[in-house]
Amino acid sequence: MTATAATPIRILIADDEPIIRLDLRELLTSLGYDVVGEAADGRTAVELARKLKPDLVILDIKMPEVDGIDAAEVLHRERLAPVVLLTAYSERELVERARRAGVAGYLVKPFRESEIMPVIELALARFQEVQRLERQVVELQDALEARKLIERAKGILMQVHGLSEAEAFQRMRRLSMDSRKSMREIAEAILLAHQLESSTRSTEPRT
Questions:
Q1: What is the full DSSP assignment across 184-196?
Q2: Which of 9, 154, 174, 183 allows an S-S link to 168, with CB 3.0 to 4.6 Å?
Q3: Phi and psi of 17, rounded to 5°?
Q4: In the chain, what are the domains?
Q5: Res. 202: pLDDT tops 80
Q6: Nearest to 54 by CA among 119, 7, 99, 106
Q7: pLDDT per position as a tens digit, 77-115
């Protein structure tokens, strides 16, 4: 995603100094970005980010009420947008806090126009890569859970109907194709039916 794309990148900026916000807005606009909102403190920045859903947030590191790093931590935790910190400070403690908060990039005051676009583009790329990796992790977890369910259902079919492993799998596959449901859904149905049947048998009065 770049500022030259058909839809401009939407950016929220937060700094407690109005003149800094004005300079930053003008620079971003001249580069083709769309500044969708401004805030003077971290708390307002987070609220606006939740409301406006920007593509990126630029936060000053030193702001009243909630500072930029604390605001960045909330934005990162809620996966709202990548954060670029605007700072005149280089203390190791602040840098380490920012790293733990998930900050994706830095602009050092006084910032130059030539520095802005590379920092923004890199922050967006990092954020998109993290999102892609998180989706992969979820997909792998889902696949692993589905595999476990299928194995359990297959075992039940083998036990109840005296099928071989291959026969049990083929039966599940046939059911999946006939019903147009996933193998996981078929496995869940088999497990549920077996659980209900076992529960019914256990509650039946003995004669």
A1: HHHHHHHHHHHHH
A2: 154
A3: -105, 115
A4: 10-111 (3.40.50.2300), 142-203 (1.10.10.10)
A5: no
A6: 7
A7: 898 999 998 887 666 667 777 777 778 888 888 777 788
